[in-house]
């Protein structure tokens, strides 16, 4: 029953949070997406598919790891019960945010939108402070020494050597 609940939570979370960040806000606040997909496609559009696809793939893999390994979702409603240090989390502490940023940058390129680029950079600045002021202190409190060891071994934003927990 928990697996079904996690799947439903993951889908709902994705529709609400990344859906707002990647679609609703850019469409309504920035005017991107409002005209649909621009025909004909150019090299800009094809090039934008690289970060868009990579970002979406990173997000989905991280969502899977949160549910399968952490037994939760990336939401305060149902935080993971275990510290997730597998998959992409072996290389960077916040791969889901990196994936989301790639999607936003891909959208900015796809729509050739300066406002989209500024939105992506502003979003990332906000996320950086959320990570520093809320997420990392919360994780330190919740997972203690295990999280401290992980922080010492894995970079916050840039991928590095794979983490080994010593287990």
Give a quick precis of the structure.
With 167 residues, this protein is mainly alpha-helical. The protein has helices spanning 2-30, 43-68, 95-110, 114-153. Helices cover 66% and strands 0% of the residues.
Description:
- Helices cover 66% and strands 0% of the residues.
- The protein is mainly alpha-helical.
- The protein is globular, with a radius of gyration of 17 Å.
- The two termini are 29 Å apart.
Give a topology summary.
Elements: H1 2-30, H2 43-68, H3 95-110, H4 114-153
Helix pairs in contact: 2-3, 3-4
Q: What keyword list fits this structure?
A:
mainly alpha, 167 residues, 4 helices
Structure summary, number of beta strands: 0
Average of per-residue pLDDT values: 87
Rg is 17 Å
- Give the SSE order as H and E letters: HHHH
Strand content: under 5%
Low-confidence residue ranges: none
Query: What profile does the largest beta sheet have?
Result: none
Number of helices: 4
Oligomer: single chain
- How much helix is in the residues? 55-70%
Question: Ends: how far apart?
Answer: 29 Å
What general outline do the C-alpha atoms trace? globular
């Amino acid at each position: 029953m928990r697996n079904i609940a996690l799947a439903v939570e993951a889908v709902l979370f994705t529709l609400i949070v990344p859906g707002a960040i990647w679609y609703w806000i850019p469409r309504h606040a920035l005017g991107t997406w409002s005209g649909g997909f621009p025909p004909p496609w150019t090299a800009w559009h094809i090039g934008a598919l690289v970060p868009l696809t990579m970002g979406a793939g990173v997000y989905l893999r991280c969502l899977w790891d949160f549910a399968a390994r952490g037994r939760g979702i990336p939401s305060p409603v149902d935080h993971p019960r275990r510290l997730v240090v597998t998959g992409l989390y072996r290389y960077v502490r916040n791969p889901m945010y990196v994936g989301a940023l790639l999607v936003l940058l891909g959208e900015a390129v796809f729509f050739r939108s300066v406002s989209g680029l500024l939105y992506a950079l502003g979003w990332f600045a906000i996320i950086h402070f959320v990570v520093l002021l809320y997420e990392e202190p919360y994780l330190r409190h919740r997972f203690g020494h295990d999280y401290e060891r992980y922080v010492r071994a894995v970079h916050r934003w840039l991928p590095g050597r794979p983490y080994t927990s010593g287990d």
